[in-house]
Structure formats: C-alpha cells, structure tokens
Amino acid sequence: MTKSRVVLITGVSRYLGGRLASMLSADSSIERLIGVDVVPPRQDVGRTEFVRADIRNPIIAKVIASAHVDTVVHMSVIATPFGAGGRTAMKEINVIGTMQLLAACQKAPSLQKLVVRSTTAVYGSSSRDPALFTEGMEPRVQFRTGYGKDSTEVEGYVRGLGRRRPDVDVTLLRFANFIGPRIDTPLTRYFSLPVVPRVFGFDPRVQFVHEDDGVEVLRRSVIEEHRGTFNVAGSGVLLLSQAIRRAGRPALQIPSPAVSAVGSLFRRAGLVDFSPEQMQFLTFGRGVDVTRLEQDFGYQPAFTTLEAFDDFVTGRGLTRYIDPERVAGIEQRVLAQVERRRPVNA
Amino acid sequence: MPEARVIPIEGRDGGDATPRRGRRTERCEAIGADGQRCKSKAVAEGLCGAHLEEQERAAVHAAAPDWERKLAGAMAFVRRRVTGDYPIDDFGFDPDLTENVLLAGIRPLYDKYFRVEARGLDNIPNEGGALVVANHSGTIPIDALMTQLAIYDHHPAHRHLRMLGADLVFKSPVIAPLARKTGSTLACNEDAERMLTGGELAGVWPEGFKGIGKPFSERYRLQRFGRGGFVSAALRAGVPIIPCSIVGAEEIYPIVGNVKVLARLLGLPYLPVTPFFPLLGPLGLLPLPSKWIIEFGEPIPTDSLGPGSADDPMLVFNLTDQVREVIQQTLYKLLLARRSVFF
C-alpha cells in the first residue's frame, strides 16, 4: 500500500475538518490537500485548496477524478439539525450526501483509502445496554430518527463500498462525544449553562474524547494504515452528576414527564439542542470499550475522559460557581476553628 | 494555598515530615508528596516555614479526639462530593459513596435488626474473579444488599460484591443510579464476562423475580435457575462458582397474595400482599425481624473445563443443576438446624 498523496477532506470548514487539514498541511509526504465544504473555512487550513461544493453535487466526482484523489476523509455528517436548517435537510446532507460521495469514490480508480468519521451514537442509549460497547455489538434500541440513525445508515453505505471495492482500505472511526477547550458541540453548550438541567432519578455514565486526541486519530488514519472499525474515546467514564460538579455548576433535576417540554423550550430559545436522542443519552448514557483503539490501532489517547473534561472546564475558562478552592478553604477554616476551641489538657 | 491539600488528615504520614534531631542544616528536610526533598530554606528544626506549620498541624491532628477526626473525615467526604472529586469505574461503581454512606446506612439492619450470621467466608478468594450464586427471596432484594455487606465487612480482603441486576432495576428512576453506584450492572453476558475477567467478585441471583416474588407457601424451594447464563459466563472467564445459601430473608415479607392486574398495570413483575401490607399501610412495609444466616459454600472450579465448554449446553445445564442442588441442600440443612425464625 502506497502512502497517501492526494487527500480530500469533506466538511473542512468545520472545527475538526479544519484542524485536520492544517495538521496534514504540515506533512510533506502529502502532495495535495483538497478541502470541500459549502461555506469557506474560517480557521487556518494551511495549504489546503478549498473547493466550495456540496457533496450531493456531481462536481465532487469530477474533483476526485481530475485530481487523482487517493484518500478521502469523510467528515461532513452533522449531528444536529441546528445549523442545517431542520431535520429533513440534516438527513439529506448526511445520508444522500454520503451516498453521492461514496458513489463517486467507487468510480474513482485512484482511490486507495477511505476514512469516515462516525459516532458512538450508533450504539444507541437504553437501560438494557451493556456497560461498555465493543465494536462488534449492536444497539439495543431501534432508532426512529436523528444522528444515530443517520450514522447507522452512513456506516451501512460505507460497508457496502468496502465490499464492492475490496482494494480500498476503509477506516471507520466511532467517536464518543467530543470535548475540549475550543470545540463547540451541543454538550459543551450544555455544560456551559449557568444551571445544568438533568433528568430526575437518572445519573448516566458519559464518556468523552478530547478534540486533540480526535484529530490525532484522524491524522494517523490518513498517514498510516488502519483497516477496520474503531471506537475512539478517552478511557474511563464520568457520571453526569459528577461532570456537572466538576464544572462547578448547580444541577437542576427535572422529572421525566416534564423533560420533553423543557427540552423543546431550550431548543426554541436556541440555547442547547435537546433532541429526543440527546435526552435518551442524558438519561441512560453510554460507554464504549477502547481496547481495539489502544491495541490494534496502537493509539493511547493523551486524555482520559476525566482529563478531557477537566481540560474543557479550565481551557474554556468556565466560571466555577462552586469553586473547589473555596470549598477546600471552608473545610479548613471549620477544622481550624474546631482545633482552636479544643480544651488544652493533653 | 496549594500545599494545604497534601496535609494528611489522619496524621498517619506525619513521620515523613519529622526531621532528624540534633542536626541543623540550612535546607528544609521535609519530603514532599512527589518524593522530592523540599528546596526551601530551613527556619527551625530543619524545616522551612511552610513545612513547620504543616508538621505542627499534623501533630495537632494526630492528637485530635476521635470525634474531631471523624468530623475531618466527614468534611473531606463532603468536599469530594461537592467538587466531583472521586473515582468511578467503567460500570459506574462509586466506592467512595458506597463505603461511606450507602453501606453504612444498611449496617444497623445487618447487625441489629436481622442479626446476620455469615458463614464460610473463607470460601471466597482474596483476589481474582469469582461468581457468587445465591437463592433469592424476600419480596424486595434486601438479601442481595445483606450479602454484599457480609462480604465487605467480614471478609478479610473487604471485597465489594458486584451484583448483576435485572432489567427493571436499570429502568427505574432513583433505583437505577443507586444500583450502578453500589457496583451493580445489568445481568447480561457481556457485563458478566467483563466483570469476571476483570478480576471482580460478581454476585448473581439466578431465580430473579420468580424467586423473590414467590408465595410464602413455597419458601426455601428454589425456582428455575434462569437459562444458566451465569454458568456460561463463569466458564468463559474460567472463574470459580461459589454457591451461597441465605436463610431468613423468606420471612421478612411473607407473600400471601399477588394483585396481578394492578402489577401488570404498573409494569411490575408482581404486587405483593403480605399479612401486614397493605392492611397496615406504611407500617406494613416494615420487614419482620427474622434471624438470618448467609452461608457461602465450597467453590466449584471451572478453569479446568476450558473456555470452549461454555458452548456445550449439556455441560452448562449439568453445572447449573449442580449449583442449584448444592444451594437447595444447604438450605434444608440450615433450616433443620435453625431453632426459630426470629432467634
């Protein structure tokens, strides 16, 4: 297998795509970098040539053919209907866009490698879930709508391409929820709320992947050879209540009958996206097994889930309303008071 | 002041900060938490200002009366809870909360109310994976909690019993997070295997709702042992199975009736009627103070059978029956020796 020479990245104008493009720009073994998106990138993407195109457009096939693209990194599956303009548009971009892109890929003789960003949302979230999902496990729930369903369909098409083009190395990366000082996701906005609402009577386990680790895994997938499906997450889990405490925020427990009402209120106010799927996640949580990433892929994430979350809190400069230093200070003052009042007789 | 965090609350690490007497040096002799010697200039007794203060405080803590040390411990606990500074394992187990609050909460029930007598604890290994299999009874799963406390309090290694719970547990609000925090996880093959191969001591009550919700007339008669999934999990992990027989739990809420229609309406597996509930209202929820015996039997090794044996249904059935038989016989033996239900 020859090394990647001409790399095409879809979704380059979004945070992760842009960071990957700027990192690959520094790699001299890569001849050409082509970034595709519907809006121009706002962050520095190095020497990436930007092509303004929708992946649903046949232009994409021409770009792949004329530039002799050998590596395609597909990162333009979107998680929320927020910026896309509704659920229908989101599904259109995710599923139809992927189908078009993969159709173009299948026709391109130059193609040697396909790297797809997927999500651990494909495992769903329910009370019957095992503690940790490995790559071979199926979701315990039936998806009706949302990111998880789109991603499951995208993965299906990707596997189809893998069958029809066995010469292409397909790397499918299932990322846990991204977190970090710079990335903006529904969850980072959720944890930045002054009072964090959560579902009464449930305390889900949540797992994060630090943005730096995520980009590094993508970079290695491009320049190295890693065929297969991998869960990508920081090791360990956090309880949602614990994460909220570490962010120094008060939590507000909302009884489940009121959850959907409150969720849509937040959604309409444009604060945080609480899709039904997201609510399910915030009720039952999810954890994935990262043994395959650490052993087969050979990457040990620099941040555990807990470290990634702490880096988000400190790096983002979130004001901790419940400040750990102050809590420790109160503790010591009380103990000092007690000591002072002790009768001297010993 | 960041150094303040490393002060040993119990004063047990105080020895490290003690300087050698009779020798005066320019530099502080204290050794920090990182194992490096403090670089500051000494002011008195071979210690720098900060370490001198720390040593004095440690000495004061060591001399502190018992209640003050308890207060310090409690306050440290509250600080950890408020700031989220405690470890959680992959299953959601929160040892800090379990040891300090939840187990402490049921200890009076164990010691004073049911006066539980734990036997055969030496059959539980000090380390490594093992599977405790027990009979289930008592309308609500207090027997599981008592078994967990018996092992944590009275086993020399103070191990945590990691219970494998039913679907309903993880569906129910309030109960679901409590179950995970006390170390339980869903009774599915994936989790059972992950726990056992991870070297945990897992506990399973294979009769499930059939056992716990059976009428009083069928007390101490074991129900079907599920589909033997626990046996195949133990076989795959190659860990021993420890049969466990619990006597006393059957009598805490004697079920004389079952309101099936209402139970189905509420999505519950059964809705018990006892002689006191719902007749006496909330008072009827008080369990009867029976005397309990929890006996752990001799471990049944599985490692010699090999991991492939889990795919041999006949072997799994036979092993399941063997475990069931051991528990049933032990129950009869214990019942014969029992003087009365309450003493």
Description:
The complex is a heterodimer of chains A (346) and B (343). Chain A has 346 residues and is an alpha/beta fold. Chain A has one domain (6-324): NAD(P)-binding Rossmann-like Domain (Rossmann fold), CATH 3.40.50. In chain A, 41% of the residues lie in helices and 16% in strands. Chain A has helices at residues 15-25, 59-66, 87-107, 147-164, 186-191, 211-223, 240-246, 256-268, 276-284, 291-297, 305-315, 324-341; strands spanning 6-10, 32-37, 49-52, 71-74, 113-119, 169-175, 177-179, 196-199, 205-206, 208-210, 228-232, 238-239, 251-254. In chain A, the strands form four sheets. In chain A, strands 3-2-1-4-5-6-11 form a seven-stranded parallel β-sheet, with helices on both faces. In chain A, strands 7-10 form a two-stranded parallel ribbon. In chain A, α3 runs parallel beside α4 (147-164). Chain A is globular and about 85 Å long. Chain A starts with 5 loop residues before the first strand and ends in a 5-residue tail after the last helix. In chain B, the strands form two sheets. Chain B has a seven-stranded mixed β-sheet with strand order 1-9-6-2-5-3-4, sandwiched between helices. A two-stranded antiparallel sheet of chain B has the order 7-8. Chain B contains eleven helices and nine strands. Chain B is α/β, with parallel strands linked by helices and 343 residues long. Chain B is globular, with a radius of gyration of 25 Å. The longest helix of chain B has 25 residues, at 313-337. Chain B has two domains: 2-83, no CATH class; 95-252 and 287-337, Glycerol-3-phosphate (1)-acyltransferase (3-Layer(aba) Sandwich), CATH 3.40.1130.10. The relative contact order of chain B is 0.11. The A-B interface holds A 127-132, 134, 137, 199-203, 205, 236-239, 241-246, 248, 256, 287, 322, 324, 327-328, 331-332, 334-335, 338-339, 342, 346 and B 4-5, 60, 63-65, 68, 71-72, 75-76, 78-79, 81-86, 88-92, 94, 167, 170-174, 176-177, 180-181, 185-186, 188, 190-191, 194.
